[in-house]
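Sorry, any thoughts here?
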Amino acid sequence: MTGQKTIPIVVGVTGHRNIRSEDRDALYGAVLRALSDLKARCPHTELILLNSLAEGADQLCAEAAASLSIPFIAVLPMERSEYERDFSGDALQRFRALCGAAKECFVAPAIEQVPPSPDRDFAYRQAGIYVAAHAHLLLALWDGKPLPGKTCGTAETVRFALENAYDPKDGIPLHGSPAVLHIFTPRETDKDGQAGAVRFLGDQAAFSGILKHTDEFNRLSEETATCAAPLLPQDREPDEALDRAEALYAAADALSVRFQTQYRRILAVLAVISTVITAAFLLYDEANLHWMILVCGLMLFAAWFVQHRGKRIACHRRYLEYRTLAESLRVQSFLRYAGSRICVSDILPWSAQTDAAWISAALRVVPIAGSPYGAHSIRKPWVEDQLAYHIRAGRKSERARAGSERTVGIALSVSIALYLLVLIFELVWGDLLPVSGHIQNAELYRMLSKLLLGGISAATLFISNYYGRLSLSRAAADHQKMARFYTAILSRIEQSGETGDLLLLLAREELIENGNWCSYRRDNSADFSL
């Protein structure tokens, strides 16, 4: 796949092999319109077609994609030499030509448990599952009728996409937001039917949201410089899937940091504006500085502008979503480097799939590739490096937490000290006691004390709220917890080695931890309303 820093929109294809000759133009036109519409809706995103290049619908869609300069990936049900037995004449020539023109060409892995004697139908079924599970949208050139007893046809592939109706070796498929574009395609034996009629199956609003957020990420990614350190050793074998995952990780990481910085700046600016408003109003009310009402108005306008900008750029949502994407891509990179075919989207917590469906969809398409080049040790790049990171980050968060507590404590102490001074003033020279004395300019001192006490108390509250939103105590505790986890994993590696179960445990725990972190941050986000 091209465009290393961007997420492609992948369109899978399933359909009948036997298409009526009189319907080809109508079907070809319907496919062209569908692909052109997707390109128009996602101007910053590359489209890629994914199919098995079978005779009929698959080849028709691949040719339509090529006419629009859309690359396609061939996912074959079996080795090419064996698969060619399904073709003859012109269909065989087209198959060979399309294989040569494909961006990538590989055999679909067995997603379900392999039976003792797998037949061709089992291979076709695995290819159908792969296409349905790794596509944003499935184009189904189909008559809409299931065939009784059939386990590997077009109707079954549609069910794979809409209902997750298959049984993988590892886990249970629960992909959300299914999307199928049904292009009505009569079979050769049908006598009637309007070929090319289109209907959408699935949640169209959710699909539109996936396209919108994916294209938004791609636009921002192209505008953003990346500087993340490499996840994996640079002397490894060339692997396009790993290169793609690492480049996307770097982009998502940079964007997450960018929007985190914007979010914190907005919090700080709102705290300052609120403090100034409080002080200006006190000056207007107590000191009779009537022009301070203009300062109040100016600060209210500034608060509205910052609030409006905060909502428009959605910095907190983007910060959390891009962090989720980055961490998931990091896990995916380590899994492939270790030689695993596990797809992170298959083990992503359900809350993460539903909160940001576009991320789950992106994680389904990033790993599209042939088998990994081999199994490498992940002890150093994954376990030891992450242990060192969490130790450093935990110490940093602890220092920041201690500093924030000192700052809030100092501000609170100043507020209390001022209160005591004001109280003493009122007891000695005010009207709180019958024996209170009198002092010249008492009202002036009273006004100044109100200004100081009100302004500093307001500042203390806003500073406390600002640091509270940063969740420094929770961050420090989470880093300490993950450091203990990686220490335990190192011990387990010493005992049993880097087993498949250990890889799955590592991946699941990291994804769960990131999901918990995002949930806490989301619940503890700032309210930008006035």
In short: The first helix runs from residue 24 to 41. Residues 240-523 form one domain. The radius of gyration is 31 Å. The chain has two domains: 9-221, 240-523.
